[in-house]
């Protein structure tokens, strides 16, 4: 019992340290086909630069190369136009608002877009259907974990 408690505390503590050390990992892929089976990537400026290049291709008002950050977020983006479908997942600089940039007029005639930016490890999977029971269980588990993280991280 004691041992179990110690182990849980250590695990949670380790999780805290990892999270706050900001070694964020995100799903990464660059095409609709790739994104069916995305790889995982540890964020760094190289990855964030790639996302900047991707965003620049499709959107306007994306910040320039003098706008960077030491911390990162995960991004997933899907843009469907009358002639093309673009899917992308990756890391971005945390000061980006990746989903807020307007679609390049070249593509904007008929388009649908789904985009999300988030800051937890591999938080950018495909949007998937939600079983309500699963959602409830996940919420409960998440609440317990968050509470315990909170207790152990904030002394
Ligand atoms: C990413 O872009 C910045 C400029 O915004 C540059 O200074 C940096 O070297 C680039 N990083 C990599 C790994 O290419
Ligand atoms: C970044 O570059 C843009 C033009 O590329 C410039 O207008 C802006 O002042 C620069 N910002 C900084 C912080 O240097
Ligand atoms: C998940 O369920 C909620 C409410 O039941 C619904 O509004 C939402 O669209 C669902 N999300 C997906 C991805 O199916």
Key terms:
155 residues; alpha+beta; two-stranded antiparallel ribbon; 5 strands; elongated; signal
Per-chain topology:
Elements lengths: L1 H19 L4 E4 L10 E4 L2 H14 L13 E10 L3 E9 L17 E8 L13 H22 L2
Antiparallel strand pairs: 1-2, 3-4, 3-5
Helix pairs in contact: 1-3
Bound molecules: 2-acetamido-2-deoxy-beta-D-glucopyranose (NAG) (3 copies).
Short description:
The chain has 155 residues and is of the alpha+beta class.
Description:
- This protein has 155 residues and is of the alpha+beta class.
- The chain has 2 domains: 20-124, CD59 (Ribbon), CATH 2.10.60; 125-155.
- Helix content is 35%, strand content 23%.
- The protein is built from 3 helices and 5 strands, in the order αββαβββα.
- It has helices at 2-20, 45-58, 132-153, and strands at 25-28, 39-42, 72-81, 85-93, 111-118.
- Strand 3 and strand 4 form a beta hairpin.
- Helix 1 (2-20) crosses helix 3 (132-153).
- The radius of gyration is 18 Å and the shape is elongated.
- The mean pLDDT is 84.
- Residues 64, 66 line the site of one 2-acetamido-2-deoxy-beta-D-glucopyranose (NAG).
